[in-house]
TrEMBL record:
SUPFAM superfamilies xref list: PLP-dependent transferases
Entry annotated with the keyword Amino-acid biosynthesis: yes
Gene3D superfamilies from the UniProt entry: Aspartate Aminotransferase, domain 1 (3.90.1150.10), Type I PLP-dependent aspartate aminotransferase-like (Major domain) (3.40.640.10)
Protein name, as recorded: Acetylornithine aminotransferase
Entry keywords, A to Z: Amino-acid biosynthesis, Aminotransferase, Arginine biosynthesis, Cytoplasm, Pyridoxal phosphate, Transferase
Annotated EC: 2.6.1.11
GO MF annotations, alphabetized: diaminobutyrate-2-oxoglutarate transaminase activity; identical protein binding; N2-acetyl-L-ornithine:2-oxoglutarate 5-aminotransferase activity; pyridoxal phosphate binding
Alphabetized InterPro entries for the sequence: Ac/SucOrn_transaminase_bac, AcOrn/SuccOrn_fam, Aminotrans_3, Aminotrans_3_PPA_site, Class-III_PLP-dep_AT, PyrdxlP-dep_Trfase, PyrdxlP-dep_Trfase_major, PyrdxlP-dep_Trfase_small
Miscellaneous remark of the record: May also have succinyldiaminopimelate aminotransferase activity, thus carrying out the corresponding step in lysine biosynthesis.
Pfam families attached to this UniProt entry: Aminotran_3
Source organism of the structure: Crenobacter luteus
Binding sites annotated in the UniProt record for N(2)-acetyl-L-ornithine: R141, S280
Cofactor(s) listed in the protein's UniProt record: pyridoxal 5'-phosphate
Length: 405
C-alpha cells in the first residue's frame, strides 16, 4: 500500500533528535493501535506512561469536544472555569493547597525548581540555594531540569549549565546525609525512578529525605510526572509511602494524552510566586484542564485504583512466567503499572533489542536505559489485552534468545 506520508518523510523534514519506529500509528482504541497498513498492535507503552485511559477514551473525547465548542484559550490575564475546577479537584484530593498549571512535566519541574530557590531566598537569603537530587534521575529536558536530573549524558554539549546542584545515590540515606546542609533549599526525588531504570524508592529513604529537609529548613519535592494519577495504585505515589512532600509535580497521565502539567504545593510555599514571578502562556488552557479533570474523575475511584493493583500483579506474574522459561531478567520491579524487567548480565545493554523484537511481533513496549525493558500501559487495559500482549512479548523474547544462541 502506498501512502502520501511515510516514515521516510521524517528524515527529510524533522530535526534528527528522535529515532522513531519504522511504522506510523494512525488510529487507536483502548489498548490497541493500528498503523498505516492496518496492522494491529497491543500498546504496553502508553505514550510513555501518558495514555492513562488508553486511546480515544469516549469520556475524554466527549470532554474535549464539549470544551472545544465553548472556549479554547484566553491567556493568564484571565482565568477560566476548567482550570479552576481542576485546581479545586487537585487541592481537595491531595495535600496541596495551591496549583500552578503548565504544559508538560519539564515545565512543572522547572516551576518547582525556581520556586524552591525563590522560597529559600525569601525566607533565608541567597546563600540557601543548593538543590540535592539523585543520580540516574530524570526531570525533563530544559537546561535547568537536565542539570537537576542525574544523567550527565543529557547535559553533554550544553555547558555551561546551572550550578548549585548536588547529586546523591538513590536510596542511600548516608549519601543524602552527606550532601544536605543548611545551604540546601530542596531535595528532589522521584518515588520511582522512571528513565533511570524503573527503580522504586525505599520507604526509609523517602522518610529520611522528609526528616532531613525538616531539620535543614529545606523543601521536599516529589517528581510524580511518571508515577502520578493512579499509576502507582494510589492517586499519587506519595500516598503509597505515607510521606508528604512540600511540592509535587504532575503531568503525563494527568492529561490522558492531552498536554498538561501541574505543580502542587502548600499555601505558605506558593506565596513566593507572587504576581509576575513566573508564568506560562498556555498553562491552565481550558481544553487541557477539561480533559485532565475528566481523567481524574475516572481514575480516582476505588474500582480503577484497585484495578491498577490487580493488573500490576497479572503483569508481574506473566513476566515472571516468561522469565522462568527464558532467563532474561534479573528481576521484575516497579510500582503499579510502571514496571521494568532488568536484564541479566548475558543480555546487558540490549534492552532496545527486546523493544524492537516486540515491535516485530506487534507489541509496543519501552526501555528505561540500556538494561531495562519498561512497561507503562493504560491503567484500564483489559485483562485480555494484557494476556495477548504478554503472549506477543514472549514471542519477542524467544526471538532475541534464539538469535543470541
Amino acid at each position: 500500500m502506498s501512502h502520501s506520508v511515510t516514515r521516510a518523510l521524517f528524515d527529510q523534514v524533522m530535526v534528527p533528535n528522535y529515532a522513531p519506529a519504522q511504522f506510523i500509528p494512525v488510529r487507536g482504541e483502548g489498548s490497541r493501535v493500528w498503523d498505516q497498513d492496518g496492522r494491529e498492535f497491543v500498546d504496553f507503552a502508553g505514550g510513555i506512561a501518558v495514555n492513562s485511559l488508553g486511546h480515544c477514551h469516549p469520556a475524554l473525547v466527549a470532554a474535549l469536544t464539549e470544551q472545544a465548542g465553548k472556549l479554547w484559550h484566553v491567556s493568564n490575564t484571565l482565568t477560566n472555569e476548567p482550570a479552576l475546577k481542576l485546581a479545586k479537584y487537585l487541592t481537595e484530593n491531595t495535600f496541596a493547597e495551591r496549583v500552578f498549571f503548565s504544559n508538560s512535566g519539564a515545565e512543572a519541574n522547572e516551576a518547582a525548581f525556581k520556586l524552591v530557590r525563590k522560597y529559600a531566598s525569601d525566607h533565608f537569603g541567597a546563600e540557601k540555594h543548593e538543590i540535592v537530587s539523585c543520580k540516574s534521575s530524570f526531570h525533563g529536558r530544559t537546561l535547568f531540569t537536565v542539570s537537576v536530573g542525574g544523567q550527565p549524558k543529557y547535559t553533554e554539549g550544553f555547558a555551561p549549565v546551572p550550578g548549585g546542584i548536588r547529586h546523591v545515590e538513590y536510596n542511600s540515606i548516608e549519601s543524602l546525609k552527606a550532601a544536605i546542609s543548611d545551604k540546601t533549599c530542596a531535595v528532589v526525588v522521584e518515588p520511582v525512578q522512571g528513565e533511570g531504570g524503573v527503580l522504586p524508592a525505599s520507604r526509609e529513604f523517602l522518610e529520611a529525605a522528609r526528616a532531613l529537609c525538616d531539620a535543614h529548613n529545606a523543601l521536599l519535592v516529589f517528581d510524580e510526572v511518571q508515577t502520578g494519577v493512579g499509576r502507582s495504585g494510589s492517586l499519587y505515589a506519595y500516598m503509597e509511602y505515607s510521606v508528604t512532600p512540600d511540592i509535587l509535580t504532575s503531568a503525563k497521565s494527568l492529561g490522558g494524552g492531552f498536554p498538561v502539567g501541574a505543580m502542587l504545593t502548600t499555601e505558605k510555599v506558593a506565596k513566593s510566586f507572587g504576581v509576575g514571578t513566573h508564568g506560562s502562556t498556555y498553562g491552565g488552557n481550558p481544553l487541557a484542564c477539561a480533559v485532565a479533570h475528566k481523567v481524574l474523575e475516572i481514575v480516582n475511584t476505588p474500582e480503577v485504583l484497585a484495578g491498577v493493583r490487580a493488573k500490576s500483579q497479572r503483569f508481574v506474574d506473566g513476566l515472571n512466567a516468561i522469565n522462568a522459561k527464558y532467563g532474561v531478567f534479573k528481576e521484575v520491579r516497579g510500582l503499579g503499572l510502571l514496571l521494568g524487567g532488568v536484564l541479566t548480565d548475558a543480555y546487558a545493554g540490549r534492552a532496545k533489542d527486546f523493544m524492537l523484537a516486540a515491535e516485530r511481533h506487534q507489541l509496543m513496549a519501552l526501555v528505561a536505559g540500556v538494561n531495562v525493558v519498561r512497561f507503562a500501559p493504560s491503567l484500564v487495559i483489559p485483562d485480555a489485552d494484557i494476556d495477548e500482549g504478554l503472549k506477543r512479548f514472549e514471542a519477542a523474547v524467544a526471538e532475541v534468545v534464539g538469535q543470541t544462541a
